[in-house]
Every structure is written in C-alpha cells, then in structure tokens.
Amino acid sequence: MAGKLYMIPTNIAECPADSSLALETQRVATGLKHFVVENIRTARRFLKSVSRDVDIDSLSFTELNEHTPEMSIASMLDVVEGGEDLGMMSEAGCPGVADPGALLAAEAHRRGIQVVPLVGPSSILMSLMASGLNGQNFTFRGYLPVGGELNKALRQMEERSQKEQQTQIFIEAPYRNNKMLETLVEVLKPTTRLTVARDVMGPEEMIVTHTVAEWRRKTKPDLHKRPTVFLFLA
Amino acid sequence: MAGKLYMIPTNIAECPADSSLALETQRVATGLKHFVVENIRTARRFLKSVSRDVDIDSLSFTELNEHTPEMSIASMLDVVEGGEDLGMMSEAGCPGVADPGALLAAEAHRRGIQVVPLVGPSSILMSLMASGLNGQNFTFRGYLPVGGELNKALRQMEERSQKEQQTQIFIEAPYRNNKMLETLVEVLKPTTRLTVARDVMGPEEMIVTHTVAEWRRKTKPDLHKRPTVFLFLA
Please, what's the b/e burial string for A31-61 (b: 16 or more CB within 10 A of its CB; e: otherwise)? Predict the structure, then answer.
C-alpha cells in the first residue's frame, strides 16, 4: 500500500512550536523518516525545535526549491509508492503556498497518492484575518512586477479591487519593503484601505489598517528586511 | 490601557482540538471572558470541547452574523476600550475569512485597537496546500452566482485562471455541491485541473485533483450536504 504525502507547516517566526503548530502537526512531523524540504538546514533546525528527541541523522532530506529541475521531482515520490510516508516542508509557513511545494503535490495527485494538509501558520491568511478587509473575496498575487511596471500593476489591482470588492494581497523582497510602502501610499487612492502586516507571530508583530489618506499623515513603520504582507481594498 | 481583539480559529470538523489548534490558541480562547461569535451555541460547545474547566455561564457572548445590523457592531468593542480582551470566533475555521467577522476587525482598526490573529485550520488554505495547484497566485471568491449566471462566471474565471495562472477557489451551498461538481465537469475545459476538497480534517477527508477530462470518466464522489471547497487552474 502506498504511503501519504503530508504537507507540514513550519514556524513563521522565532516563536515556540506550541504557539504556531497544532499538536497533531508536531506529532506527524516528528514521526516521519523522509522529507522533501525547501531548505535542509532550516528543516533540520525546525524538527529539533519541535522535539529534542528527534534523531536528525536517521532522517532523509531532499531539497525542492526554485533551483530544482522539474524533471527530478517525480522520483521524490518513489519512497511513497514503496509504502512510506513523506513530509513536505517549506522554508516557513504552509508548504504549497507561495513556494514550489505545489509541484510535488501535483505529481502526487497524478500518481493517485493521498495528500494530507496539516494545521499551522500562514502569514498570508493571518494577515487577512486581522486586516478587517474583505475575507469573502480575496486574491494573493505573490510578488508584483518591479520598476516602471509596478505602478501600472497597482492601478489595475486597485480597479479590480473596487469593482469586485476583492482584497489584494502580495509580498515584496524584504529589502524593498519600505520602498513598497512609500509607493503604495503614493499610488493608491486616498480612500483605499491599506494593511501592513509585519512580523506576523513574531515578537514585534504589527498589523495595522488605515486609509491611504491616513497613511500619508503617519510616520511609517520600519519594514526593512522584515517579513511583511501587504493588503489593500479599494 | 485598551485590550486586544483576538481572532480565534475554531475546529472545522468533529476532530479533537489538538488536531486543529495550536496550544497557544487553546490557551487564549479559554482565558477570555468576552466573545463576539457568529453563533453562540456553536461557540459554547467549542469552548467546552477545548477545556471542560471553562465556566461557560461566566462568559459574555454577542452574536455577529449576516443578520446583525452594521450599526450595532461599534458598541461590541466598548469592552476592549474599557481594558478587557475580546475574542472573535466564527462558526468554523478562521474568523474574518468567508464570514462577517472582518467588520469587527475593521472597526477595531478605526479605533486603534490591536487585532491579533491566532493559528488554526482554514479549509480554504488547507485545500490549496493539498491541491497541487498554483499557490503563488490564487483567488478565493466565496459563493458564485447561481442559475444561468453560473456558467458565464465559470468561463470568465477559467479565462482569468489561464491568462494569469491563478488558482480559482470557491464554495457552494452544501446541498448544491453535487450539482456544482457536475456543472464544473461539463463547463470547464478538458485540460483544466479541478480539485475537490471534501470534509477537510474530517474522518472522510478527500482531496483529489484530476483534469476535467479525467473527472468526466470517473465516478463522482458524494458531496451532498458535506463541507466542500472547489479549486481549479486552467
């Protein structure tokens, strides 16, 4: 009988596992022998933080990230067809969302392997929960285009947001976060509500929603190189 | 000093709290005295399931759901300005997502009250994690239009999905789930990948992705009156 592919969320900030992971997630994560992970070093450190009793050296890790050739993904599931369970973990948060883990889940479905999602933190979803913006219609777009294309993209998103009452969610390369906030406050309409969610689940978590007109009057928070999710609703 | 508004996820299936909630979420939920909830009976039952020691009769509950007049929402936060913490819980899953809880969070931001999201299950996000569809660009649209408008809406969504490589996520009134699956298999293109996620976290959890061409050949799962999330990527 084939094993299962478990999609295992990991911490999104330097906080104890009990804050961010259901016990069942911790139990499954520390009971598996085989992993496909976005980054091996992070994955080992994560498993050690969940349980000191884990014998890391007895576990097998294979990396799947943006450098992985797509043709090498299929063989990662051989162990599952051999009857063993496999855990997928991304660098932080929920695998399969905003990372290449979806490619492994897609291949599992093609082979009829059961894929089981577990409960853990997602900075995207938690930002939305706390934003007060529309949670009945929302879109996550990953990274937006850079340079001259950014303003155009933002205006198109704002138009769609207004027309469909759809919350727009996105992220930026962390070293450009402050610049992104400046651009948003400059480009978006004064009445658009803009949420900045910084360090979700971290010690300096800050999730704040203001209209763009209000943001223009305020001292901006420092987002430089800190994990931040941006959301707006026109 | 003002209190905080905690956005508290609840179970999405009849499973033990440890499967679906971080310990920290359970700790906060059972430590609060004041709640705004989508349904009082469900909220009481949920708190009892997390801890038998909770003295339910000492807690205050106010309902916020689709029947609540918007003008009555503001006063729900008076207790927070008085210095006490408040917990928001929806009927199931994450408050502020696919429920009216966002209105309370929005009002909190207007008053400068801190909103804190906690970790728990979201059938939308967990379906996406396990689907193998694109998690770097996705949209949740809540309920789609019914009747003659549905086919048109699906074709527009499929077009956008293809153009933007955007996963489309939505739900249906549970008694129309089987009909929705029939319609999807009929209307969407054969190459579009369609995920059906039924009873996420429940004992009969089934998350399956096939192309529409494959779905046409298969015996359809029974989704009647069972919580189901639909996802597709063209």
Answer: ebebbbbbbeebbbebbeebeeebeeeebeb
